[in-house]
């Protein structure tokens, strides 16, 4: 309760500062709603962080993966769908970047091989002339 009161007080102070700067007013109900949302959001973040740590420890990992995020989001089908879509977009983007790097490096290798071959031919011709 004390924590919730502290969040409400802090949100009230912030709203008062904004009200003075922007020449607007916040109703008590608005401040209460913002406080409640803030308090719940902070609780949710702590909840998820704790669960991520548990999942990682269980899997003997130190890195949170997209599969961990999907596992925690499975109760909300729309959130799970969004996370899956974004994950696939990122994966496909990473694959495209890797392909571009491969093409650049193979083109550079081919260019280097052609230059070396040309140098060898020129060197061979020079030795034949001598």
Automatic annotation (TrEMBL):
UniProt entry tagged with the keyword Isomerase: no
Gene Ontology BP, a term: DNA repair
Disordered: annotated segments: 91-130
InterPro entries: CENP-S/Mhf1 (IPR029003), Histone-fold (IPR009072)
GO cellular component, one term: FANCM-MHF complex
Source domain of life: Eukaryota
Keyword line: DNA damage, DNA repair, DNA-binding
Molecular-function annotations in GO: chromatin binding; DNA binding; protein heterodimerization activity
Keyword Protease: no
Xref: Pfam families: CENP-S
Record-linked SUPFAM superfamilies: Histone-fold (SSF47113)
Family: Belongs to the TAF9 family. CENP-S/MHF1 subfamily.
Protein name: Centromere protein S
Organism of origin: Nycticryphes semicollaris
């Amino acid at each position: 309760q004390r924590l919730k009161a502290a969040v409400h007080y802090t949100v009230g102070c912030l709203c008062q500062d904004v009200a003075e700067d922007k020449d607007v007013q916040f109703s008590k109900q608005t401040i209460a709603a913002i406080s409640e949302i803030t308090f719940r959001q902070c609780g949710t973040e702590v909840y998820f962080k704790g669960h991520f740590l548990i999942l990682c420890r269980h899997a003997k990992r130190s890195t949170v993966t997209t599969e961990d995020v999907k596992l925690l989001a499975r109760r909300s089908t729309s959130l799970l769908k969004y996370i899956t879509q974004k994950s696939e977009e990122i994966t496909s983007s990473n694959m495209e970047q890797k392909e571009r790097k491969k093409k650049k490096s193979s083109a550079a290798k081919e260019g280097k091989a052609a230059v070396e071959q040309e140098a060898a031919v020129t060197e061979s011709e020079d030795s034949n002339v001598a």
